Each structure stands twice: as structure tokens, then as C-alpha cells.
Amino acid sequence: MSTISVFDMAGNQVSETELNDAVFGITPNEAVMHAMVVNYLANQRQGTQSTLTRTEVRGGGRKPWRQKGTGHARQGSTRAPQWYHGGVALGPKPRDYRYSLNKKVRRLAMKSALSSKVIDNNLIVLEALELKEFKTKTIVEMLKALGVSGKALIVTAESDAKVIKSAANIPGVKTAAVNTLNVYDILNYDKFIVVKNAVGKIEEVYA
């Protein structure tokens, strides 16, 4: 097992903790992580786009002119796709873009994403994250003390309303509980800030 420093909210190192190599120490599988990100983005699509076909557009019941003798191309309806106000040929219809990946693939992708944060030195472990009140300034000062300037994902063991609302107005900062953690968010944010008790929960699930 590898060890990592544990910091308090003031940015001081207070102890060290061991990370389970089965979760935080594997060789990242980029292909699996890519597949998981594509799956996540596909599952976020609403799929509500819709166009009208020629049978759904109002009008066009009468043949616009006789078949022969006019010099025009033959036409049967003014709602054919080539006409202005005509229906759309092969246009999108409402559909469900969701699909699922195998459980082993999802677990490997999560462990690969977590391990990549350790390899890149972008994992920060907090001793505790406790707020007495809803205060954005407290989170801002904590991030500054930890030397975090870019995008950051803050992970807690349980959903904490004070942490969520205090970080909501900070650009590039997102909060998540262990049970809502996903590969896309881990890879999308530069720094992965996790509370110490949340590390134990992650290892309990994925080890």
C-alpha cells in the first residue's frame, strides 16, 4: 500500500494515510475510461429532438398541377421534402440514447480514474470537512490554503448541504458524495479533493 499526506482545512499536513493499491494503485486503462466517459455523456442526452415527416405536415393533399404538359417536374404534393414547408426526410425522432456497460468495465474504469489522479499527484486527502454555517468564503480559503487554483472536485462520504451550497457559487468547483461519484467528473476536474472517511468508503466499494 502507498501512503499519502493528509491535510486539514488550513492546508497543514496533519498525518498520513495508506491507500489501497487495488483501487488507487493500478495501471490506468485509457480505453476503458474513454468508453465510460462516452457512456456517461450518452446517458445525459435527452433525446427529445423531433422533426415532422411529410405525412405529419399539415396540407399538401392536392396535386399541385397536372402530371403532363406543364413543363414542370411531376409533383404529387407540396409537402414532399424538396418543397418549402415540406416534411423532413429521415429527420431525427425522439429516442433513448441510454446504454449500459458491464459491471467489471465500470469498476475498472473507476479504479483507473482514481489511480490516474494519484499518478498525476492530483489527489488531496482532507482530514475533515466540517462547516458550521453556509459560507462560500470558507471553501475559497480552504482551496487557497491547499494550493488549488484550477477545477476541483470535492468528495465527501455523505451528502452535506452546507458543503454543497457553500461551493455552488465557486467557478470550476463541484461537490459529490461517494455514492454519486462517476468517472467523467473525476477526469473532468484537475484536482480530486477527498475527505479521509470518504477514502475508506471508496475502498470498501471498489477494493
SS-based class: alpha/beta
Given as residue ranges, the uncertain stretches (5+ residues, pLDDT < 50) are none
Q: Gyration radius, to the nearest Å?
A: 27 Å
Biggest β-sheet: strands ordered side by side in the sheet: 2-1-3-6-4-5
Shape: elongated
Textual characterization of the structure:
- Strands 2-1-3-6-4-5 form a six-stranded mixed β-sheet, with helices on both faces.
- It has about 210 residues and is of the alpha/beta class.
- It is built from seven helices and six strands.
- It is elongated.
- The protein has helices at about 20-25, 30-45, 105-120, 135-145, 160-165, 185-190, 195-205; strands at about 1-5, 15-20, 125, 150-155, 175, 190-195.
Furnish the topology, listing elements before pairings.
Blueprint: E1 2-7, E2 13-19, H1 21-24, H2 30-44, H3 103-119, E3 123-126, H4 136-145, E4 152-156, H5 161-167, E5 173-177, H6 183-188, E6 191-195, H7 196-206
Parallel strand pairs: 1-3, 3-6, 4-5, 4-6
Antiparallel strand pairs: 1-2
Helix pairs in contact: 2-3, 4-5
In short:
It is built from seven helices and six strands, in the order ββαααβαβαβαβα. With about 210 residues, the chain is α/β, with parallel strands linked by helices.
Defining key terms:
alpha/beta
